[in-house]
Amino acid sequence: MQSRKRVLVVDDEPGIGSVMRRILGRVHDVVVHAAHRQALRAGGGEAHKGWVG
């Protein structure tokens, strides 16, 4: 079985983030943010390390 990946979704439309979390969350750990700065802080400032993009 493949391990779960972390997926970072950045979109200013709350509905898009919700749909992405619902779909991708079945097989991945999904984090949704509305702003890129929040997203970078959540990722520890390392936008690509360990994240599916």
What does this structure look like?
- The protein is an alpha/beta fold and 53 residues long.
- The protein has one domain (6-46).
- It is built from two helices and three strands, in the order βαβαβ.
- It has helices at residues 14-24, 36-42, and strands spanning 6-10, 29-33, 51-52.
- Strands 2-1-3 form a three-stranded parallel sheet, sandwiched between helices.
- Strand 1 (6-10), helix 1 and strand 2 (29-33) form a beta-alpha-beta unit.
- The radius of gyration is 11 Å and the shape is flat.
- The model has no long low-confidence stretch (mean pLDDT 82).
Alpha-beta content class: alpha/beta
Total of DSSP H or I helical runs spanning 4+ residues: 2
Outline the low-pLDDT stretches: none
The overall number of domains is: 1
The amount of beta strand, in percent, is 15-25%
Q: Report on the biggest sheet.
A: 3 strands, parallel
Question: How far apart lie the N and C ends?
Answer: 21 Å
* Strand line-up of the largest beta sheet: 2-1-3
